[in-house]
Amino acid sequence: MSARTASPTDRQTTCLDPLAGLRTPQDPPCDVYLTGTVFLDIIFTGLAGAPVRGTESWARGMGSSPGGVANMATALARLGLRTSLAAAFGDDHYGEYCWDALEQGEGIDLTQSRTVPGWHSPVTVSMAYEGERTMVSHGHDAPDPDGAPTPDCPPRSRAAIASLEQGRPQEWIAAAAARGARIFADVGWDDTGRWDLDGLTDLAHCEAFLPNAEEAMRYTRTSCPRAAARALAERVPVAVVTMGTEGAYAVDARTGETADVPAIAVEALDPTGAGDVFVAGFVTGTLAGWPLADRLAFGGLTAALSVQEFGGSLSAPGWAEIAAWWQRVTHCEGQDPAALRRYAFLAGLLPEVTRPWPLRRAVPTIGFRTPQ
């Protein structure tokens, strides 16, 4: 594959380690472990509106990038967390591209992953318009690996990120929690319509639960996202409800602390993966020991920066992008002083802007031949 990748030296010189002051020789080998399905995402942007039946629509932009669980893994790695991903990869050009982009391009540890002979990569086509997106996906479940799981799966880690499933406990979540990992979880849409909170049995292992507002209200039978967060805090130590353009609200049941942080107003090009980027920002702040409101603000900032690019996983910002944003808003006249104070915690964290924005982004297609 000819997709450009960053060298390990490049990553070391441009990626801040948010846990540098906390690391010890006894630490786990990775900061965050996660598992799931990697898709090849093909994203169309700049559509005038929703595709109309029986017509052909032309998009002004197109990008390809790893998707699915790769969105979260990339967002974590770009924030300097040592990330381990266990996933199946297709035995095709798409799978080869995704593996290369994640391992070589982003520095993600794929020792727990595997390429499945004869299995093709799942694919999602995403169409972004009017600040929303419509997706069409195709794929098949990967065959189970031969033999028993390896003893190091899941590996020991500071944290693990899970997507909870209704009525289907996942053994690896309990195993990771038993090995000391702090579990952060989100949840998908309940196609059964039951929205049974008791059915999310793995919630018992979680330190934080981060659903969106619609999911949170349906699970708690409430009509307000903040009331939903308070109800969820009776089940989990930290409940975070994301509210899109209205920001995010969180409750820490252990301390009684709450935080309500508004969203940063941006023009969204492609919202694909924004929720994953928010979770990655929140996890980073949590592992670094930041106050609850700072964690919410950081998650919202990283998500806001991501939607201004297209490409799912490759839209996630790194520290250089965050530093460039902070430098820009602090030197721009007319900024709201209260809003600047909300993000003042960044001032002592950010590296100097030493390279152009942006990071590697989605490309129109894959497999270009390199000129000789």
Your description of this structure?
The protein is α/β, with parallel strands linked by helices and 372 residues long. Helices cover 27% and strands 21% of the residues. It is built from ten helices and 14 strands. The protein has helices at residues 8-14, 69-78, 93-106, 171-178, 213-220, 225-232, 274-287, 292-306, 319-330, 337-342, and strands at residues 30-35, 38-45, 61-68, 83-86, 88-90, 114-116, 123-129, 132-138, 157-164, 182-187, 206-209, 238-242, 248-252, 258-261. The strands form three sheets. The protein has an eight-stranded mixed sheet, with helices on both faces. Strands 3-2-7-8 form a four-stranded mixed sheet. Strands 5-6 form a two-stranded parallel ribbon. Helix 2 (69-78) crosses helix 7 (274-287) and helix 7 runs antiparallel to helix 8. The longest helix is centred in the last third of the chain and has 15 residues, at 292-306. It is globular, with a radius of gyration of 20 Å. The chain starts with 7 loop residues before the first helix and ends in a 30-residue tail after the last helix. The model is unreliable at 1-13 (pLDDT under 50).
